[in-house]
Amino acid sequence: MLYSFKPIQSIKRAIDVINCFTDNINYLTLKEISEITNLKLSTTRGIANTLLMYGLLNFDSSTKCYSLGLFFSAKSKLLNKKQELYIQHISPFVEKISDEFSVTCCFQIVENLQVYTIYSSSAHKEHYQIHVAEHVLLPLSVSASGKLALAHNYNLQNIKYALDSKPDNTTDYSSTSVEMLEAKLNDILEKGYSYENQEYQLGVSSLSVPIFNSNGNIIATLSITSFSTYIESILNDVVPELKNQASQIAKLISNI
To answer: Where in the numbering of this chain does the IclR-ED domain appear (predicted)?
Structure first.
């Protein structure tokens, strides 16, 4: 039910302004922000000045450019502290799976239908490895962990949201309709794990299992990624072990 309400327009616009700033775009003029957000210049100015007042944006009068403010630096410490606690507890389990099955194993946090990798480990003995980026949101409809989160937050609006936000660079294996995605989500709920077979990138596949809190809500996922033919060959062996490790992780992180 996360996307069953109409967002408050003013807050959404402020978030849109903040989202203009990325790893590659650190500084923007008011006009550039206005063009990116498709907002009137006067509206953009009002939002930017409000964000500036509360430290969410910074303004350089010499260049007339805005950037993200120190507010985010202070708040990020809170998130980093929580993530460090997670990593301290889960890293041995992730590395065990990675080394035992010669795959890239990842731990993802699930919050508000967003899936975010905070730790990954690749098998050290392998010559070829698939790198999975940390601190990047995973797409819901074409990633194993994304579909897992979606399956455990199952409703039509969430499914439509996932399809609408699907990345452009997907493959012909990805879901293109509500019916296709629903069939995959039902299969996930029946089997207890998610299998993404070349939906995001040809030749690469992923498996993911859920991690629940004491209330039965999904809070994280444990996943593996490797070449598609290899994932298929170890499927029957790796799924029970992933579920076993996920169960142990759940006991350790339930109170974090």
So the answer is: 64-255
Tokens for 117, please give them. Answer: 């990798």
- List the one residue out of 221, 161, 232, 162 whose CA is nearest residue 196: 232
Buried b (16+ CB within 10 A) or exposed e, 180-190: ebeebbeebee
Please state, as a whole number, how many other Cβ atoms lie within 10 Å of the Cβ of residue 218. Answer: 20
What is the structure's pLDDT at 1? Answer: 47
217 alpha carbon, distance to own chain's centre = 17
Per-residue pLDDT tens digits for 24-77: 999 999 999 999 999 999 999 999 999 999 999 999 999 999 999 999 988 888
Instruction: Evaluate whether residue 4 is within a structural domain.
Output: no
Rounded distance, CA 83 to CA 118, Å? 7
Please check whether residue 1 lies inside any domain of the structure.
no
In angstroms, the CA 91 to CA 6 distance is: 39
Pair (60, 88) in one structural domain: no
Q: What is the pLDDT of residues 213-222, one digit of tens each?
A: 999 999 999 9
- The whole-angstrom distance between residue 206's C-alpha and the CA centroid of its chain comes to 14
Query: Tell me, what CATH number does 237's domain have?
Result: 3.30.450.40
Answer yes or no: do 36 and 147 share one domain.
no
